[in-house]
Design a protein that fits this description.
The chain has about 500 residues and is of the alpha/beta class. Helix content is about 30%, strand content about 20%. Bound molecules: zinc ion.
């Protein structure tokens, strides 16, 4: 068999390449005709079927139409010799939903980036503002915090210039962050969140430690609503300090229990920062729940420092810490480490801060787990400097952890950033079934990189550096990165959204 052709397999029926590979034995490509693009001689890796072979990839109308040893006629040919041809990377957790951040992500191999943790509110205008203007595919969940704000009588959610929801100002000044919802407010909240699902929101997004007033009952009821509507829940867990004798594992137990009791699907964001040293126990808990039929997944970014808004409720308990504790905080705008005095000044002013202090050994262990999805948690570059994870997450996993450290196979590394995030969203966004795969009938979202050279360059002190070794990136068949440079003036990014009634 010298080719795996497209025609006998319709787009819907053939997403499993394995089906095509085994069922369709074609001697040639008789009616393929000229294709738009032929990518020749690359090492095609598809984590779904396990395909790992040097093949030519034919693309027409933004869709992969053949994986073949033949060379069908094409309007354009790109030599991918020595390169891996992988599905475009899918980032479930990207706060930088602005053109600047998308450029860093595209250079890191990302073809789809979504704001699912905190979410957006309201959903309709957020999608409308990006339609036809985006470099890469985009999408968002319904923000619990945004809806809670309205349910408490504040009509407009606070957003940054680029439209990303802010995390609210801590210090017990805002009722919608700190107060328990009354029965009326809870009803209103549920109604508002359901209304936004009807606008195409990809499930519910919770940053529950930023809204400490949300009680366990509220979260459980919203899980029940999500289950009822068959949409996933994405959640930054409650702070461990909210559980008297819990430790890091307790917040995980809360959401696993809610998922088990309601039938909701739950995706726990950045387990690396939420679990810390308890990561092995936490993953055992998650895997145990999965084994008993609970739909729970998790993700991590490959860095030992996190980042957040200094004015948010996350820093409410930070008065009178030790000098060493303030030293672990780094002000994003200047790169300077904080003191008690600068902490107070910046908390008043508001802005992004990096929190150092986690252990690399645990970080590496988490990254090496094949079932922990890779997601950046990148913060916006639209305001200037940011955390390096928004620019380097994916190249760092492939270059540092897969190649240099050898803690993860290349196929497992790719699966974490392509197939697994696509599958997480397939029930709410059927279009994701055509992403995260290099298969006939799949979308031509492709990332071509040099496995010997791929590496992140962004650092805490110089976060604004593009990754290296990612040569070509295609979004729906259009080059957004070519010969390791951004392509100007292209906006092939499409909305990833739930079907609207
Ligand atoms: Zn978070």
């Amino acid at each position: 068999m010298n080719s795996v052709a497209s025609r006998p397999c319709g787009r819907r029926a053939t997403l499993a390449a394995v089906m095509c590979l085994t069922v369709v034995a074609c001697g040639g490509l008789p009616d393929l005709g000229p294709v738009d693009l032929l990518i020749t001689g690359g090492r095609v890796m598809d984590p779904d079927s396990g395909l790992d072979a040097v093949l030519n990839v034919a693309v027409r109308d933004g869709v992969i139409v053949a994986l073949t040893e033949d060379t069908p006629e094409a309007h354009e040919v790109v030599d991918a010799g020595g390169l891996v041809v992988a599905p475009g990377f899918i980032d479930l957790h990207a706060h930088g939903q602005d053109p600047e951040s998308s450029r860093y992500q595209a250079r890191d191999g990302v073809t789809t980036a979504m704001e699912l943790e905190i979410g957006v509110y309201p959903v309709g205008p957020w999608y409308a503002a990006r339609e036809g203007r985006a470099l890469i595919h985009f999408g968002a969940s319904v923000s619990h915090q945004g809806a809670r704000r309205e349910a408490f009588g504040v009509m407009v959610a606070e957003t940054s210039g680029a439209g990303t929801l802010l995390l609210g100002r801590g210090g017990a000044s805002d009722a919608y962050l700190y107060e328990a919802a009354s029965e009326d407010e809870l009803h209103r909240l549920i109604r508002l969140m359901e209304r936004e699902l009807d606008q195409g929101g990809l499930g519910f997004g919770f940053g529950i430690s930023y809204t400490p007033g949300a009680r366990h009952l509220e979260l459980w009821r919203l899980f029940a609503t999500a289950a009822d509507r068959q949409v996933p829940v994405f959640i930054h867990l409650r702070s461990a300090g909210a559980f008297r004798a819990g430790g890091a594992i307790a917040p995980f137990q809360e959401v696993v229990a809610n998922a088990a009791a309601t039938g909701a699907s739950v995706h726990i964001v950045h387990m690396n920062s939420s679990a810390g040293e308890a990561a092995p126990s936490v993953l055992e808990l998650i895997r145990g729940a999965q084994a008993h039929g609970v739909d729970v997944t998790t993700e991590a970014y490959p860095y030992t420092a996190s980042a957040s808004r200094i004015e948010s409720a996350l820093f409410d308990g930070w008065a009178n810490r030790t000098d060493a504790a303030y030293q672990e905080l780094q002000w994003v705008e200047t790169g300077a480490r904080l003191t008690e005095e600068t902490f107070r000044t910046y908390r008043e002013q508001g802005g992004w801060v990096i929190m150092h202090g986690r252990v690399e050994e645990t970080n590496e262990w988490v990254v090496s787990q094949p079932d922990v999805i890779a997601a950046s948690d990148g913060i916006p570059f639209s305001d200037g400097r940011a955390h390096p994870r928004g620019a380097g997450t994916f190249a760092r996993i492939l270059g540092h952890y897969v190649r240099d450290r050898g803690v993860l196979s290349l196929m497992d590394g790719l699966r974490k950033m392509t197939l697994l995030p696509a599958r997480r969203l397939e029930t709410v966004a059927p279009q994701m079934a055509a992403k995260g795969r290099v298969q006939v009938g799949a979308d031509a979202d492709l990332t071509l990189f040099d496995p010997d050279r791929v590496i992140d360059r962004a650092t805490y002190d110089a976060p604004d550096r593009f990754s290296e070794g990612i040569l070509h990136v295609l979004v729906a068949g259009t080059f957004v990165v070519r010969d390791e440079a951004l392509v100007d003036g292209v906006t092939p990014g499409q909305a990833i959204r739930a079907p609207t009634p």
